[in-house]
Amino acid sequence: MRSPVTGIVTLLALLLVVIVGYMSLFTVQQTEQTIVLQFGRPVDVVTAPGLHFKAPWNSVINIDKRILDLENPSQEAIASDQKRLVVDAFARYRIKDALRFYQSVGSIQAANIQLTTLLNAALRRVLGEVTFINVVRDDREKLMQRIRDQLDREADGYGIQVVDVRIRRADLPEQNSQAVYQRMKTEREREAAEFRAQGGQKAQEIRSKADREATVIEAEAKSQAEQIRGVGDAERNRLFAEAYGKDADFFAFYRSMTAYENGLRANDTRFLLRPDSDFFRFFGNPSGKTATETPAKP
């Protein structure tokens, strides 16, 4: 029969085995890489995910191996044309050498501080070599690539690989922006006034040319009209003369009818004439002859 002491010892031994076994196992996630430390000194780096073994007295540190974001606060930089820029940028990086990373910076928080300093320095160096227009419009993609390359070279000593650097915004400071906008507004207004003046001058030239051409056309038309009218009057006089030569009485009758038509117009029929005037001779006699000219009846 076993004594109670033997059972207690056996139980303690089993408990010790469980504790030692638990302390000898560790798990590596797919998004992590693990450093095994022996009394604070790195002895192994495990990158494969799964269950792994270690000495019970060793400890582990898990380090993220995913792509991490580095948010950089807005910084001021001076371009080569002495324009002050407010630059808002960010970076993405990953830890490619966990051991070097642990020995150099130790944690992601410390790495972010160090990378922020390096990123700001790279921004000032690269943007200081180009003009404001290159930064905001022409060469932004190339400049971001240059900044990434410089930051990646400097971060390599910390076991970090810089994946990307992006400039969200690069603009003038607020007070400078207002001055630039006002200058641009003044320039646009000057150009608009110049265009309006040129347009007014052009319109005046076109208007003067049109008036001159209209005057010439009108004068030519009047000249042609006078010529045609003269030809018509000559033809009319010829016809009148020919008609008078053929029938003097009918010509006199026609002339009197024309005079009646022109003289007896609406609202203008007042005459100061003697009743026996020749003007009204056709009123008394359809032949237009006076009483003295009428032959006596036999």
UniProtKB/TrEMBL annotation:
Q: What is this protein called?
A: Protein HflC
* This protein's UniProt keywords: Hydrolase, Membrane, Protease, Transmembrane, Transmembrane helix
> What does the function comment of this entry state?
HflC and HflK could regulate a protease.
Q: Which residues form the Band domain?
A: 23-184
What SMART domains does its record include? PHB (SM00244)
Query: Which CDD domains does the protein's record reference?
Result: SPFH_HflC
Q: What species was this sequence derived from?
A: Bradyrhizobium japonicum
Q: Name one GO cellular component term.
A: membrane
